[in-house]
């Protein structure tokens, strides 16, 4: 088992077997790369090198239960990369795409959306136009810049105007609150957005507040989406039981990989909650999400981080950089066709991954920004 830290901020995992099969996973945890590398390169190597790669469920349960301290972003992101790689190996061994091992396809193709704007959203209309030219029918943007706990309501007018302008292009729009707004501002913005019918509003509040999110969900007709900072099906339980969400957004690189993403999909389906996996990450994470989406009835749309006009912190590499077969993610009418090759359905350019990891060896890992208000008080990024 090997790890590769590559631009822009991704952590790839390579697992090989004694009979020559190679699987790729992704354990990207933005801002905490070294911690995840520690789990993979020490604890998991000690536990799993020499194990039978066919026993995916036993490896998953051992990684989760046997360490005494369970869950959380670091452990689950490390487990995600290992799990995805093992599924890739099993698919290649049996010569089928992973979705065939999950029961087969329930749809083809899968709907996708692309990011527009950045941390400080301003002129998103031109970016939305280019996304439309690329074949997207839906986009997502940040709702606000840095904002106070109780700020002037005029701060929200620009958000509403941006959503209105992009909707007028004929595109569906997801609006990511990013947990930046506290309840006094979030309830106002949710109400203001209702006439413009956003596809969803994401992380309306911080993901530690299921009761408060449930209260706001009852006050708005906008679909509520969240889940990128929830790491297991157990974390989703209070949100589901309190009827706090409409769309679950687990991240396959954070939530325990394909195994747990599929379990979360089944759990949320019971509550009539849709699945729209979070994935502003690399090609391995995107392929893993697509494999689950093809086999999950409640899967509705997939985030993808095509860099152009997109995620501003993905600098130095693109979603397609490390692929030997970029056309597999071609977009047509807002959709990507089912991946056909065995395993994840993509081919990683291993030489390029190794060269990139070696070239950037010793460089400081990506860190999340720190935002403060005019009074010096810390604000949510």
TrEMBL record:
Check the record and name the InterPro entries matching this protein.
DgoD-like, Enolase-like_C_sf, Enolase-like_N, Enolase_C-like, Galactonate_deHydtase, Mandel_Rmase/mucon_lact_enz_CS, Mandelate_racemase_C, Mandelate_racemase_N_dom
**One GO biological process term:** D-galactonate catabolic process
UniProt key word Magnesium: yes
Q: Which SUPFAM superfamilies does the entry mention?
A: Enolase C-terminal domain-like, Enolase N-terminal domain-like
* Cofactor(s) in the UniProt record: Mg(2+)
**Listed GO molecular functions?**
galactonate dehydratase activity; metal ion binding
Q: Keyword Metal-binding on this protein? A: yes
Swiss-Prot/TrEMBL keywords: Lyase, Magnesium, Metal-binding
Q: Which PROSITE patterns match?
A: MR_MLE_1
NCBIfam families named in the record: PRK14017.1
Put simply, this protein is called Enolase C-terminal domain-like protein
